[in-house]
Each structure stands twice: as C-alpha cells, then as structure tokens.
Amino acid sequence: MARSAKKIRRLVELFRDLETTERANVGELTRQINELQSAQDELLARLANPTAETEPFLPLMSRSIGNMDRRLQRLARDREAAVRRYTQAAGRTHGASTLLADVRGEEDRKIEQKDLEALLEFQ
Description:
By secondary structure, this protein is mainly α. About 90% of the residues lie in helices and about 0% in strands.
C-alpha cells in the first residue's frame, strides 16, 4: 500500500503542477487582453478627437483598431480554452487528492489492524 500512496502522491504533485501552469496561462492571457483593450481604447480616443498631426494617419489607425479587435477575439477564445483546461486540472487535482487521502486512511487502518492482531497474539 505504501507504494500505491507514493505513486498517487506523485500524481497529485503532477496534477498540482499542471493546475499551476494552467492558472499562470489564464493570468497571462488575461493580462494580454487587458493591455490590448487599453491600447485599443487609447487609439479610439485619438480617433474620436483627431488633431492635425494624426489626421493623415486616420485610415491606418482605423485598420489597427480592426486588427486589435480580431486579436482580442482570438485571445478571448484562447482564454476560454485555458479556463476550461484549468478547471479540468483543478478537478483532477481534487480527485487525486481525495484518492490519496483514501489510500492513506486505508494504510492507517491496515497498520492499526496489524497492531491489534499482534497485541491479540501476544496475549
């Protein structure tokens, strides 16, 4: 049983690492989305109030907003997929942790049973 607990503990650690990686991935995608949205908002503000310096660049700025919007959509899809993977990883970690607790409980029960049997044989 100790070997089983050791294997399951390694699985729990692996699942925890995967969960941490997915959480970091979600955080990074969220950061990228926020940065891109602020850049897009800033560009939209410039387009709303054009100056003599920005007037010649209005078509280019408009096209940049479209590109940013498409990139935001891609990032949003990637983030949704990352959140799903994170949720799955968290579920696997929880399941493996529960299994590990059950195996350890079973090991403790067997050790206690052996101790009781040894005590009964001694008497």
